[in-house]
Design goal:
130 residues; mainly alpha; Globin-like
């Protein structure tokens, strides 16, 4: 679990753990029928950016900002129609990756709670069923 004096980055295991998480997550995204089609065929650049972003977001090195400047993630996602269903699917894929990596359930829950804020902040359109 997360100690009060540590970061999510440290609790997950640092650099290599974040890389494993991202590399476990994106195959799930690619095969997901709702969100998979939103991603490019060559997913490697997306994986690298996500690794850099999550390292920073979870309290590790400022890799993303050092390379690309301020993340401005909502603005970067605006060209894509994102619904609550898309955010739910994204979080579901992340939950699957955390489970596959056998991350402590309490830490997984904390990570998903931390990611849910940005995931739902990117929603920029209503669901088709509404």
């Amino acid at each position: 679990m997360l100690r009060p004096d540590s970061t999510i980055y440290e609790a997950l295991g640092g650099d290599q753990a974040i890389r494993r998480l991202v590399e476990t997550f994106y195959p799930k995204v690619k095969v997901h029928p709702l969100i998979g089609p939103l991603f490019p065929e060559d997913i490697d650049p997306v994986i690298e950016k996500q690794y850099m972003f999550l390292s920073q977001f979870f309290g590790g090195p400022q890799l993303y900002s050092d390379e690309y400047g301020h993340p401005m993630m909502r603005a970067r996602h605006m060209p894509f129609p994102i619904t609550r269903d898309h955010a739910d699917a994204w979080l579901s894929c992340m939950a699957g990756a955390l489970e596959e990596l056998d991350i402590d359930p309490d830490l997984s829950h904390f990570v998903l709670q931390r990611l849910s804020g940005p995931a739902y902040h990117f929603v920029n359109t209503g669901n088709e069923e509404e």
